[in-house]
Sequence to fold (392 residues):
Amino acid sequence: MLVTTASGISPYDSGRWVINTPAGRHVLVNDGGAELYRILRHASTVEQAREVFNQSFQATLSAEAFDRLVQARFGGYAILQHDGPAVAQPEYIAGATQLLTPRAAGWLALPLVPLMRHRWYWGLLGAQVCFVGVVAAAVPMPTAPAAAYLVAAPLVCASWVVHELGHVAACAAAGVRHGGIGVGLYAYLFPVLYADVSNSWQAPRGVRLRVNAAGIFAQVLLASGLTVGYLATQLPALLLASVSIGVSAAWQLNPFLRSDGYWMLSDLSNTPNLHAAASQSARRAFSLAGFRACLAGRAKRPTRAELLLGVYGVLNRLVLVAVVLWMLSRHGQAIWELPLQLPALVRQAWQLHRWPQPQQLVALGFYAMWARFLVAQLVGRYRSYSLPAQPA
Fold:
């Protein structure tokens, strides 16, 4: 065996396979890459693997050329025996800290597991959404006293934990190994809870969709219970919490952030790394070379999938532009003044004299967002020169 025993392979969709690596990476390969992996898995020597490969693919690769092929396909992922340490994957959640172990998360998610494997899963989700939405629209929001917010706020925070438990429960229902639940910083700015369900990549698309929607399912289930409680007791805190949780669940459908909506769209379109693929498609469509090809009549007619991917890439950029313009229009003065005020703000915060004002915090977020963007561009350029080619 020339690959590590801890790695494995499973089907992804028609003509594509996922290799699960010991480091937790998931490498997408085509039929040829999957066959090469199986050859390496069953061969005891490199020479034996080369002979089987040449027979299977009717090739005449030399030992040196075969070694280059294997390294280009699988090097840098700790898939191969005696390979170096795996190259770190991009971190979407920085400073991730586990709060619940996989065992504890699985135990807490047990009550949700039967619902996650129910054959009417999608129907139950739709019914709950309609119930919460209709009540929220039909019942005027009562004037809530301060005490109601003290009750609603913990319930909303608890719903975020329930959301992650939903993902864990869906994995357990499908027999997919899950990790724990933790907290980290999305985009190095926003505190978020997360559940490690990365092994769902090895499951069929239908299971992946259930896992990705399960957090919303669990949140809306809690909101439905609170709505029933409000209808029975008329306590404003319960309606306030229910509506807030419903809004929180709806926000998860945002397809432009790496939230549930993004992963569901990625699965529906069968496009792993959707952001990267859409950005690349948009760059090709609107590049100078692409414009010249159109003028010369040499441009290849895009498929429907390529066209939709390019539109998504453009919309993704427009959303970022809209956020930047909103920040400049609402907090432009604070953004321009922050560099001059920053030393005094840091000194005052350090001495506990005064905490930054909300508009100054928005300005800090503005600069942090652009700093992260520039760092990501630099790191991406560095990796493009230093990393091995991605498997096809």
